[in-house]
Amino acid sequence: MKVLVANLGSTSFKYRLFDLSSETQLARGGIDRIGQPDAVSSCFVEINGQRSELKQVVPNHAAAVSICLQQLTDPQHGCLDSVDEVGGIGFKAVFAGSLSGVRIVNEALLQKMEALSDIAPAHNPPYVRAMRQLQAAFPKIPLVAALETGFHETIPFEHRAYAVPYEWYTDLEIRRWGFHGASHRFIAGRVAEILGRTDLKIISCHLGGSASICAIRNGASVAASMGMSPQGGLPNNNRVGDFDAYAIPVIMKATGMTFEQVLTEMSSKGGLLGISGLSGDCRDLEEASAGGHERAEKALKLFEASIRSYTGAWMALLGGADVVVFTGGIGENSERIRTNVCRDMEWAGMKLCADRNAAVRGECRISTDDSRVQIWTIPTNEEIVVARQTAAAISGQG
Fold first, then answer.
1. Angle at CA of residue 285, ends 283 and 291, nearest 5°
2. Domains of the chain, with CATH numbers?
């Protein structure tokens, strides 16, 4: 089966095409500036290392997928003979509350995602809108949502619940849902392959513009840093992370902002951007810090301290760790972040090798040979996880 995996933004569409019979990537591509008035989109596709691009106005996500399929079936440069070869489209969807896991997209799921848009305002609205457009435009192609919360369904109550009235947990679904499930699932599987074991205690550090840390035992999630929403947990590039809700009325009284305005500020002007006043991108902050920018250094230190706090907490929960993994754009590429997270952690069995850490290229072990806890950088592959889940869901439906 050939599966198209879609990663959507409000004005963007990125995709990868997989052949699940061999789990090979056939193509990747992307389209930007979708639905922007008078804006011309860049529509690129890369097949067998060859990249082609066209420029045109793209009114909506259905049109974006149509362009994608035209490129993939191009007689000269494409990798498909017909659109009929696409067995399904999988979405790395974010949040649908109790409708978690992997699901064929239907009206009940779409309505649930719409109702929970306040929890994931940057993700749910564009996904719902695009899924509706695609259902209308391509009724014969099954759509599958692989919810980011699915991997965390194994987290026990004591690590999932807030200390709120119990009815809020049961009736209102107020709980720590956890996110980045596809990435943490991939890391769990890949580490098991590398070490030839499934009985592992893993701490998976997905560090990027959006970041979270997951405690994994025997391949299953037992705790995750993100909470009810992607807003909780570690500070992100522009999202606050963990925050005391009782500070909100103080902010409202002092600034005159409405509740909705405070939430918008917290989710768009907080995090590393808010602390630094400069950027939410760690690359910019590391460069600025090296040049003496005080607030950039403060933002980086806060980020590192938060990662260390969760790493220590998850070690206590797991009873130690066998492997700590750094993944995501920051986890894979920032020597500084890895160094400072692992600093003075010998008491926990973690010994980082400075030379290996400085020479990181892709998947590699960066701990010393005598480190009791192995430390790795592993590039994540959320798309292949979603492709597998999509194929399984479609086959099961039949």
1. 110
2. 2-147 (3.30.420.40), 193-382 (3.30.420.40)
